[in-house]
Amino acid sequence: MTEKQPSVGSVALKWGFIFALIGVIFTLVLMVSGMAENRWISSLAYLILIGGIVMAMKNYKEENNGFMSYGQGLGIGSIVSVVYGLLSGISSWLYMEFVDPDYMSRIMEKQRVQMLQDGMTDEQIDAGMAIAENFQGPFTVILGSALITLIFGFILSLIISAVMKNSRPEFE
């Protein structure tokens, strides 16, 4: 008699949405308070992603009698990461587009000042600013967020899956 395994996708989507919502709230609080430019504080959002991956894998194992293969863990972590990245990108774009349209210009100005302090020439700064302006549209903000979070989440999932896996015995 075979047992029905839980769906990797449904577990990952559920936890991906839950932790993406937590991450979105955290990021919006940082943006509104002006603390989003602080790299150390804003990088705490990745701890939320790690928590989401761990909780999703833990939940999957509970629903699967304590078993989860390495591949299932990678799948769960990747799905959680892409959901997290997509929702974060959408919320960031909505914030920058409708709530605080001057947000990106303030960030760009801070980057310009930093480049001047780093000793870059005006031509280098203008070239860098021109490239950065190409990545401010909704498509690039949302897709870029999803892609970067997926890559980072996949790397995290490689490690977390290795620790949390518990493969089903072959002859059970």
Task: Name a few traits of the molecule.
single chain
Describe the SSE topology.
Layout: H1 8-33, H2 39-42, H3 45-63, H4 70-99, H5 103-117, H6 122-133, H7 138-164
Helix pairs in contact: 1-3, 1-4, 3-4, 3-7, 4-7, 5-6
- Label the overall shape: elongated
What is the SS-derived class? mainly alpha
How is the main sheet built?
none
| Quaternary organisation of the protein chains | single chain
Q: Whole-number radius of gyration?
A: 20 Å
Distance N to C terminus: 11 Å
Total beta-strand segments: 0
Order of helices and strands: HHHHHHH
Low-confidence runs (pLDDT<50, min 5 residues)?
A: none
Query: Average pLDDT value?
Result: 92
Query: What proportion strand?
Result: under 5%
Individual helix count:
7
Approximate helicity band: over 70%
3D structure, described in words:
This protein is an all-alpha fold. Helices cover 77% and strands 0% of the residues. Helix 1 packs antiparallel against helix 3 and helix 4 packs antiparallel against helix 7. The model has no long low-confidence stretch (mean pLDDT 92).
Summarize the structure.
This protein has 172 residues and is mostly helical. It is built from seven helices and no strands.
